[in-house]
């Protein structure tokens, strides 16, 4: 038996596999989060699509997800926190997914939102952590515009 890719310490057959294979329901947001991470590791793209909240699946790019899942190695996920709403119908899981692409370790941090509908948990959306948005203060300089340094050359031939 092999350990589950979600880093729970349990065997795959006793942890995420029954959820992915639709033999058991995820018991809460954290269980679904772990199963979704594991689905990337075992390349079960159908589960990734089906575990999305109905009505949000139109943007699911199966080919891109499949390529990413195949290109990466998946050493584990860290659950930073898991919160269940008082009504038991929604929850948030803050996690750090670890993966390696071309030998380079990577991390993806997110606060994921889950919701229960008709007795099943679904991934709704998430807030990706650690991404910085840059705001340009001046107009963008085109490659063929005059260089702002004043040389009289085109930007691409000077400072560009």
Largest sheet: 4 strands, antiparallel
Number of helices: 4
User: How do the helices and strands follow one another from N- to C-terminus?
Assistant: HHHHEEEE
Helix content estimate: 10-25%
Under CATH, the topology can be stated as Nuclear Transport Factor 2, Chain: A
Distance N terminus to C terminus? 56 Å
CA radius of gyration: 21 Å
Can you give the mean pLDDT? 86
Percentage of residues in strands: 25-35%
What form results from the Cα inertia axes? elongated
List the strand order in the largest sheet: 1-2-3-4
- Per DSSP E runs of 2 or more residues, the count of β-strands stands at 4
Which CATH class is shown? Alpha Beta
Domain module count? 1
Q: Low-confidence runs (pLDDT<50, min 5 residues)?
A: 132-136
| CATH architectural grouping | Roll
Task: Please identify the structural class as seen in this structure.
Answer: alpha+beta
Protein name: SEC-C motif domain protein
Organism: Desulfocurvibacter africanus subsp. africanus str. Walvis Bay
Domain YchJ-like middle NTF2-like: 29-126
